[in-house]
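Crash report, auto-generated. Payload:
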Amino acid sequence: MKNSCSSVSTLLEKYFDQEITDEERFLVGGHLQDCPACRDALKSMEELRTLMRVPVEEAVRKEDFPWVWQKIEREIRLQRKRTWWQSLHSWLNVTPLLKRKVWIPAVATAVVLLFFSTQIIFKKTPSYPDVSVVEYVESQSDNVMVYQLDEPKVTVIWLFEGPEEDGTTT
Amino acid sequence: MAVRRPGGGWHDYMKRVGFLVAAFFVFSLFPISTALAQVPVRMRVIQASNVGQNVDSSLKDVHHELGSLFNFTSYRLLREENLRLSPNQPVTITAHPGRFMEVTLVGLQRDAAKLRIRVIREGKDILDTQVRLSPGRTVLIGGPRHGEGVVIYAVSARF
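Recovered output after restart:
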């Protein structure tokens, strides 16, 4: 079926800009083979684009927009520089689901550790054997006596100092 | 475009759990281990003599023991020190003029602290002893002359 120029002309711009579907491209391509008017219209579009592209590209080449790039780079730097708290928060916050999954076992472990450590720390001291044992005693200069009483439970180490050894003790 | 490793989510998750648990463990045990490593020791230097009949009010708690052991009539507190001993770190105090006392925590068991006590006069050990004290127990070291009487050192472990 032959298509009329009026129906194809609406698709011609899209064809020219390559924004056309395969089906439409097939349709327009078939019409262009048979219609010199539409071929001319397409050719005009190409010439017009060439005419416009050359001065525009020339103007862009002359302008390097340094201030625009500086601004963009500054924005990128600002976005990259995060506070330690933001870094930590993002580090912990993988996804909302994982976030919850991380904290549940962590808190559970913390509670268990706290429970056992408090048991150890605050464990009531059992009746330890009351000891006050002298393991050794010696003196380079004087005599020494060790005296242990059961009541009161006291251990005494007595040093007989000086030339006269007058035991003033006990 | 970010590239995601297969299984990276689980790996990250485990890493983070591990980090949080380890951090808690380290921070919770640090003060405990520091506290356990130190032993408070109370040291009192008492002058005992037969001059007068005074007993310092600060010695009321040991007056009974002193009275039942010794025949002195006067007990005066010359000095009191509350030390915190760390293992194998000697602490030296001036016991009374011309004499120094060095106390070292050489061992710590659940029910007793092992202390090495040296009394030094003119660079010489006039007494070198090692005692094992359970919490609250006191050892009395007496004999060195001081003025009209003698000096008694009362060393108590308080842990």
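Post-recovery validation: Confidence is low (pLDDT under 50) at residues 164-170 of chain A.
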